[in-house]
Amino acid sequence: MKLDLMDGQDLLLDTTKRLLTASWSTQTIRSRHDVGDRSDRAISSRGADLGWTALMVPDELGGGSVSGHAVSDLALLVEELGRVLFSGPVVSTNLAAFALAASGSTHLAEEHLPGVVSGTSLIAWAVPEEGTRWGADATGITATPSAGGFVLRGVKWPIQDAEYADHLLVSAMTPDGLTQFLVPADVSGVTVGPMESIDLARRLAFIEFDSVQVPATAVVGAVGEAEEAVERQLALALTLQCAETVGATDAAFDMALTYVKDRKAFGRAIGSYQALKHRFADMLLWLEGAKAVTEAAVDALERGTGESDSACMAKAYVASKCPLIVRDCLQMFGGIGFTWEHDVHLYLRRVESNALLYGDRDYHLDRLAPGIGL
Question: 35 or 158: which carries more pLDDT confidence?
């Protein structure tokens, strides 16, 4: 997003591009879809060696950002992953690392974050419910106090990367208020099942908690005091998703721009016709706006002020404009753009899916409305 990279960020992006060029392509997405396997933990483990999973982890636990600005590092990384529609558990893992590092639960951080950094442990962020509640409003799942701990009951969905997670970071409502728990994915009573997604490269799942017993030591932070933490996690999730969407949209835009420069009709490149120039001008304006609001959301998280509002504004704009851009890009290719073999529909699937995941435009405009008296 930023034109001037800080120290270390250029190396992170360069090594990431090299790995993705060698190991990931749209053909990888198609081949995995054909066999029903969208898991890519092997590539993610190699990414962990490059620092993908260490950015939100404190230095004393083996992590650390490359520039001293962890959110900026991570947003740039996720934007690059979005350009190639990578589907590994980078966002979910970093969300969980962010939550554990900030929670004050030293025993959980020391036990689990080294595995996150090394890529040997995957934690899925299991907050959303029913596809309509995405942050601190996701209070349908209950945690009833019991001897030595809590009993979890309810369903979470749609959850990214849950099917191959080792642990689940779960928000639930206790008698004292919203609380987060770190739950092993294989504990008795937990059922994880696949969900359909229009995005061919991404796995979504539902998680059912059927009287799942968890000890008091599984509490992340303090009982009943997770609302603010969950909202900050949602702000980070939205910001990273916007960065990913911007990367995917930018790639689709470049693809369409190259095509209209090369494709000839009536003896001239179709991109030279005024009608298409106007459409590309609109698309570029929207794309630069999406980059700007995403960068503002990153800056808000780095400062630690206004992050929720900035993230909601970014998501509302990106979810509104980026699908329009990629739909127009698809139309630039004419009939071939609608074929299975062409890559542009893969980008449209990712952008349209992201427009709904973690809340659509209207959801986030509703969240912003009280701030302006509506």
Answer: 158
Instruction: Give the position of tokens 């993610």.
Output: 44
What CATH code would you report for 227-372?
A: 1.20.140.10
Q: Is there a contact between 259 and 329 (Cβ–Cβ < 8 Å)?
A: no
5 residue type, one letter: L
Q: In 336-345, which positions are buried (b, 16+ CB within 10 angstroms) versus exposed (e)?
A: ebeeeeebbb
Looking at the chain, the domain(s) classified CATH 1.10.540.10 span 9-121
Q: How confident is the model at residue 44 (pLDDT cuts 50, 70, 90)?
A: confident
CATH class of 124-220: mainly beta
- Measured CA distances, 129 to 7, 56, 141, 197, 295 (Å): 39, 25, 8, 16, 28
Query: For 109-115, what is the mean pLDDT?
Result: 96
- Reported pTM: 0.96
Phi then psi for residue 204, to 5 deg, are: -120, 155
What is the predicted pLDDT for the residue at 5? 86
Place of tokens 């934007």: 79
- In CATH, the number for domain 9-121 is 1.10.540.10
Among the listed residues 267, 266, 265, 284, the one whose alpha carbon sits nearest the alpha carbon of residue 333: 265
**Distance (Å, rounded) from C-alpha 272 to C-alpha 329?**
16
Q: For residue 65, give both structure tokens.
A: 């950002």
Output the pLDDT for position 260: 98
What is the pLDDT at residue 374?
Answer: 83
CATH 1.20.140.10 in the chain, residue ranges:
227-372
pLDDT for 36 beyond 80: no
How far is the first Cα of the chain from the last one, in angstroms, to the nearest whole number? Answer: 32
Q: What CA–CA distance (Å, rounded) separates 242 from 248?
A: 10
For the chain, the 3-state helix, strand and coil shares in percent, each to the nearest 5, are 55, 15, 30
What does the angle CA 194 – CA 127 – CA 362 come to, to the nearest 5 degrees? Answer: 95
What are the angstrom distances between the C-alpha of 233 and each of 62, 101, 286, 335, 338?
A: 21, 12, 27, 41, 37
